[in-house]
Amino acid sequence: MITAIVFVTADVARIPEVAQHIADLEGVSEVYSVTGSIDLIALVRVRSIDEVATTVADHLNKVPGVEGTETHIAFRAYSTHDLEAAFSLGAG
After folding, report:
1. How would you classify the pairing of strands 28-33 and 66-73?
2. Which domains does the chain have, with CATH numbers?
3. CA-derived radius of gyration, the chain
């Protein structure tokens, strides 16, 4: 599994709908609105680098209201807390 962290600059008047559109894309697991010089952070979790390219370049970048992106590929996860919590839902 490859995780890409995508910083998104968006039309500020359209942030909620841009975020929802991005969240609905295949391969996007989460979208956060954030403070600072970027507007949104999207987490892309896919099986290959080619899927990262397809998700970001062919789909996310073309969402109306997206003005720019910066993509970072994660090398390692140092905390599995969130993943363990997600997989433990309903257990027990």
Report:
1. unpaired
2. 2-87 (3.30.70.920)
3. 14
